[in-house]
Every structure is written in structure tokens, then in C-alpha cells.
Design brief:
The protein contains eight helices and eleven strands. It is α+β, with helices and mostly antiparallel strands. Strands 3, 4, 5, 6, 7, 8 and 9 form a seven-stranded mixed sheet that branches. A two-stranded parallel ribbon has the order 1-2. The longest helix has 16 residues. The chain is globular, with a radius of gyration of 18 Å.
Length: about 240
């Protein structure tokens, strides 16, 4: 999506994937002219939390204030039309710029994000404050210097809870949205885990330990065979 839109970006890749991504970068640069750089992580197979923490570390060390952190399977961005009462596919650069401008104008905001297209339409453009965002995330690295991803899954829940419990704000914008392939049809993410069930259970235990039972309620999803949790966002907002 970013290549087609001509939006410059930085890829964070594991050492074992560097050569493959370098080749892809050359092909992309030749076909679209999009400026793309690559940062190689220090270690392989450390999981998504490690990778995102390295992205955040890079932003802080590079004196980058606000930056977008996008999953690589996002296929398009959308904007809610008041006149048509629905989400319409929009130019990616305009969506990212408009959301950035709104975020920068919001005091105490350290994490913002767009909603999934399949959920955003029902909110009719309403912004939802102090909740979870994921996949298409905007981070204020300057004010969010304290943010630290956990060493387990559910990292998006964790870092948003961390921000809110520290007195800052998060927001999920529904006037803008993103689309991805159906869950489980792509590569990467949690699919490489040998035992997702145990990893999910460890994540719930980590959230419980950090934020307590008033905020985190464990839920076992029998059909899927793993633990998840419900978050009492009102409790963490105080």
C-alpha cells in the first residue's frame, strides 16, 4: 500500500530476512520510486513485542516525535463520509496526515490508531478515547518516552493500558479506518508460535500481574483453545 501511494517508510526486519527484503526494496524502488529504508533488528525470532520495542527505541534515538507503526498486511485506508453515511476508500497519505493533525492537537495523547473497517462504520466517525488500538498505530514518542512493550503477547492491550494508567490518553479514530485480509489467512504474527495456547495464557497472566483483577478478567475461548481477557477500561481510566 505504501509503495503504491509513494509514501516513504522504514522497514524493521530480522537479520535472517535482510537479504530477502533488500531484494524486494530494489524491485519496489524500481517500479514505484518510493523511498524505503531498512533497519535490521539485533536478533531473530524474538516476537512482535521485541520488534515494536526496537521501533520505539529507534524513534527515540532518532529524535522522531510522532510516527506511524503499521502492520505490513494493511491493504487500504478509508474515510467516513457524512454525506454518504459510510466509509469510502481514500488516499493513504491524506488519511495518515489528517489523523496525525488531529492527534497532535490533543493534549496528553500518546497513542492513537485507526479502527478496523468492519467495525468503524457503526460508530459513524466518533472517536473512542482511552481504549485499545492496534495494527495501524500512531505513537507520540516524545511524550511517550516511558512506554515499554511487554515480553509476551497482547502487547497492544498492554501498552495502551500502560499509557492510560500513567495519566495519558489513547484514542481510536473511527472516521478513518484500515482494511486487512481475514484473520488467519496471512503469514507471520502469532502463527509461528509452537504453542499459541500457552503463550496466550502467559500473556493474560502478565496483564493480570501488571494491572490487577479489577482491570483484567481472564476468559477461556474453548473453540479456539486458548485464553484471552476482557479489559475493564473504565477501571483503568480512574
Amino acid at each position: 500500500m505504501l509503495d503504491q501511494a509513494g509514501i516513504p517508510y522504514t522497514l524493521f526486519v530480522e537479520p535472517q530476512d535482510e537479504d530477502a527484503y533488500e531484494q524486494q526494496a530494489e524491485v519496489a524502488a524500481g517500479s514505484t520510486g518510493t523511498k524505503r529504508s531498512i533497519v535490521v533488528l539485533e536478533k531473530n525470532d524474538q516476537g512482535v513485542s521485541y520488534a515494536r520495542q526496537m521501533v520505539l527505541k529507534h524513534a527515540k534515538q532518532s529524535d522522531i516525535g510522532w510516527f506511524w507503526m503499521l502492520d505490513d498486511d494493511i491493504t487500504g485506508l478509508y474515510k467516513y463520509s457524512d454525506s454518504e453515511q459510510k466509509l469510502i476508500k481514500h488516499e493513504p497519505l491524506l488519511v495518515l496526515e489528517e489523523a496525525l493533525q488531529e492527534a497532535q492537537a490533543t493534549p496528553q495523547l500518546v497513542i492513537a490508531g485507526l479502527d478496523f473497517r468492519q467495525f468503524a462504520w457503526s460508530h459513524k466517525g466518533k472517536s473512542i478515547y482511552n481504549t485499545q488500538v492496534c495494527a495501524c498505530v500512531l505513537i507520540n514518542a516524545e511524550d511517550g518516552w516511558f512506554l515499554k512493550y511487554p515480553d509476551h503477547l497482547m502487547e497492544d492491550k498492554y501498552i495502551c493500558l500502560q499509557a492510560i494508567s500513567s495519566g495519558y490518553k489513547t484514542v481510536r479514530y473511527t472516521k478513518w479506518a484500515f482494511a486487512t485480509p481475514p484473520m488467519g489467512t496471512g503469514d507471520g504474527g502469532c502463527q509461528s508460535l509452537q504453542d499459541r495456547g500457552s503463550e496466550m495464557k502467559r500473556a493474560v497472566e502478565g496483564l493480570m500481574k501488571r494491572f490487577g483483577p479489577d482491570v483484567i478478567k481472564p476468559v477461556y475461548k474453548k473453540k479456539l483453545g486458548w485464553w484471552d481477557c476482557k479489559v475493564n477500561w473504565k477501571a483503568v481510566r480512574g
